[in-house]
Amino acid sequence: MLESNPPLLPHYKALLSHTADEVAALEYCNVWKGGAVMEECQLPLIDLDGLKCLDATERLACSTAICRASSEWGFFQVVNHGISSELLGKMRGEQIKLFQAPFEMKQTCGLLNNSYRWGTPTATLPTQFSWSEAFHIPLTKISEEACYGEFGSLRGVLKEFAEAMAKLARLLAGVLTENLGNRKEVIEDICDESTCFLRLNRYPACPISPEIFGLVPHTDSDFLTILYQDQVGGLQLMKDSKWVAVKPNQDALIVNIGDLFQAWSNDVYKSVEHKVMANTKRERYSIAYFLCPSYDSLIGSCREPSVYRKFTFGEYRKKVQEDVKRDGYKVGLPRFLL
């Protein structure tokens, strides 16, 4: 049988040949924000049934909890989110089948709009390398039958899953915008199917060390992200200047604020740095939905004085890509401070 795993180990070992001086320079630039995890955290847990409650006090309490978590943590969990456990289970099964395909097929056959990625091609040091593989799929391609090849059963499930995640993302974005005195449709007006993505992730077991990144430290370059993950664990976030491990909750989806919501809210909501650590014995699966605007959408502040200059999403992505190509890491919002 052909190997399904990407050749992560040879590429990682090649990066180990870099000198100690280069590693020291990277640490000096404060790009490598590693260190031992101090504790395991339980993210704020929010029951979204509160948003449907007839009692206005209950609805307000639920909305307030969402906004408080977005300001204090930049992350929270939601239950009673409207996506059935049956659909989530079907999606996970299809995802596993997809990633079990031979590596050569995933890499060359154009699956899912040729969206397959593995490792980190731009990495010049081990601390910039992600021990993972993924399909990063534009929502506009999900309905196209030609994208699936022999994985035809994935199409219907992925379409239903994407629609459910999009509905949830719009609901949460509406709560967050209303909290700042704006119409709940403000973010929805500039985010539609043509601009959003799904990312199917697999983190193979890593035989080297549990200190290897499954996904390097980063913030998300969107408005918000919704994550469906398994129970293996590995997700960590920066809280009070230290890394904390997120305890998996099989009944919850994880939501995190992206850079665009932080800029638009004038730093009221926080886009928090996070990472995934590899597991030496178990593979890990997750699926992320990214709520993004069109590339020409202008991102300004909802209140004055503004912390950031206005920029388009296209300009932001271009600057991120330039920084990663040149320096090996993302700078992000600090590039746009006034």
Automatic annotation (TrEMBL):
Residues 192-293 form the Fe2OG dioxygenase domain. Transmembrane segments: none annotated. PROSITE patterns: FE2OG_OXY. It catalyses: gibberellin A1 + 2-oxoglutarate + O2 = gibberellin A8 + succinate + CO2. Keywords: Dioxygenase, Iron, Metal-binding, Oxidoreductase. It comes from the Eukaryota. GO terms for molecular function: 2-oxoglutarate-dependent dioxygenase activity; gibberellin 2-beta-dioxygenase activity; metal ion binding. The keyword Metal-binding applies. Pfam families: 2OG-FeII_Oxy, DIOX_N. InterPro entries: DIOX_N, IPNS-like_FE2OG_OXY, IPNS-like_sf, Iron_ascorbate_oxido_reductase, Oxoglu/Fe-dep_dioxygenase_dom. Its EC number is 1.14.11.13. It is an enzyme of class 1 (oxidoreductase). Gene3D superfamilies: B-lactam Antibiotic, Isopenicillin N Synthase, Chain. One of its GO terms (biological process) is gibberellin metabolic process. PANTHER family: 2-OXOGLUTARATE (2OG) AND FE(II)-DEPENDENT OXYGENASE SUPERFAMILY PROTEIN-RELATED. Belongs to the iron/ascorbate-dependent oxidoreductase family. GA2OX subfamily. This is gibberellin 2beta-dioxygenase. It comes from Juglans regia (English walnut). The gene is LOC109005901.
